[in-house]
Q: What sequence folds into this?
């Protein structure tokens, strides 16, 4: 028999699923996979439920319900001063995961190079490799995750078609600052390429401002900016994402969406439109609550002797395990923690190209998008296992 696609067949199951399965098996607290353990806002859920009873059950329009595209445009204006045409510059997708694949499909041809920044989210490399594109990885070095200018410059060349940028960044919690974005924007302009901007954690920053690359000079025409209702409304299971892009690109992203999914659940779209229009207080409350949880976990980890890396945004904080791991690598230590402490985490080496140089082995990622009492219990369990 002929073989199925060898690249996909050999792709390991995602680390998020592996650690969640281990968490269930060992009755562990799941600080691994990034999903909140509280329901999202009840009023948003009610709108989705009502929409099911209101004839919102057949195919939605290809690029999304008009009310959601309008809400995405309004949110671009409210938070970033971006003027966006809801009719031609917004595409609704089934999650940011689909949006990432659709944006890549929209711009790359086989053989094109795509600059990606490690540590990176685990769908980036498979998605671009399956399209025949070639990744050019640039590493940010812990603990400060600063951008290595010379290496970034060197990664761009005549074959570069796009850069993928994730800010606020998973797993590092880094929020790219203006000077770093300016450097990236210069390179994007100089090499005449596109930028796929994964901004799913846009509303989860802690006293630092999230700046979309799209707002920098010359970037409006080159960026595809991706948001996720899952993250902005603590409803990760809904898988509703949205791409904002200039019309010429959005129309091609829409073709990719047409091929991949065609249309996203209409009741969820209606509820997300309602959610996006919530007042500023909602968004401030979301990030304030997440920041409190970050502080709780970070301070607890410090008391246990872990050093943590700065985490200005996202659901995640990275800890250095050197003091406790007794020579074990991050994968081994994370397995030990889930089995012996009853706390699941994610080894940071999972966020590196398996074909690249050896990744750091001394870092694990904790998710703090969990109830304070759960974080306290996790810290107690860690203390017991490590003492
Ligand atoms: N990008 C990043 C950086 C993420 O952490 C996630 C996490 N879930 C996604 C994309 C995917 O988002 P969605 O669930 O909306 O597909
Ligand atoms: N984005 C989530 C995380 O980083 C996981 C999403 C998934 O499991 N695919 O934990």
A:
């Amino acid at each position: 028999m002929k073989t199925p696609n060898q690249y996909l067949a050999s792709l390991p199951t995602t680390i998020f699923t592996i650690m969640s399965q281990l968490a269930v098996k060992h009755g562990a607290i799941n600080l691994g996979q990034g999903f909140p353990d509280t329901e999202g806002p009840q009023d948003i859920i009610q709108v989705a439920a009502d929409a099911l009873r209101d004839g919102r059950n057949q195919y939605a329009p290809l690029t999304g319900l008009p009310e959601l595209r309008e809400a995405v445009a309004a949110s671009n204006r409210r938070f970033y001063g971006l003027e966006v045409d809801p009719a031609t510059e917004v595409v609704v997708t089934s999650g940011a995961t689909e949006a990432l694949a659709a944006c890549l499909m929209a711009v790359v041809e086989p053989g094109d190079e795509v600059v990606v920044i490690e540590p990176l989210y685990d769908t980036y490399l498979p998605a671009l490799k399956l399209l025949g594109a070639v990744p050019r990885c640039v590493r940010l070095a812990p603990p400060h995750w600063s951008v290595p200018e010379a290496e970034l410059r060197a990664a761009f060349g005549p074959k570069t078609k796009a850069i993928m940028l994730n800010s606020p960044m998973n797993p590092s919690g880094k929020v790219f600052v203006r000077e770093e974005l300016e450097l990236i924007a210069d390179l994007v302009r100089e090499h005449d390429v596109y930028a796929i901007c994964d901004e799913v954690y846009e509303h989860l920053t802690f006293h630092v401002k999230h700046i979309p690359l799209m707002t920098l000079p010359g970037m409006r025409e080159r960026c595809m900016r991706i948001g996720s209702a899952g993250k902005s409304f603590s409803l990760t299971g809904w898988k509703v994402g949205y791409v904002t892009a200039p019309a010429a690109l959005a129309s091609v992203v829409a073709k990719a969406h047409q091929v991949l999914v065609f249309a996203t659940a209409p009741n969820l779209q209606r509820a997300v439109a309602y959610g996006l229009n919530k007042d500023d207080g909602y968004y401030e409350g979301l990030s304030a609550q997440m920041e409190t949880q970050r502080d709780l976990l970070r301070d607890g980890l410090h008391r246990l002797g872990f050093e943590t890396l700065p985490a200005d945004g996202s659901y995640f904080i990275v800890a250095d395990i050197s003091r406790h791991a007794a020579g074990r690598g991050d994968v081994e230590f994370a397995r030990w923690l889930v089995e012996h402490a009853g706390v699941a985490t994610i080894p940071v080496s999972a966020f590196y190209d398996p074909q690249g140089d050896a990744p750091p082995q001394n870092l694990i990622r904790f998710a703090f998008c969990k109830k304070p009492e759960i974080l306290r219990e996790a810290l107690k369990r860690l203390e017991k296992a490590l003492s």
About this structure: The two ends are 55 Å apart (CA to CA). The chain has a mean pLDDT of 97. Residues 319 and 354 are 21 Å apart (CA to CA). The chain has 15 helices and 13 strands.
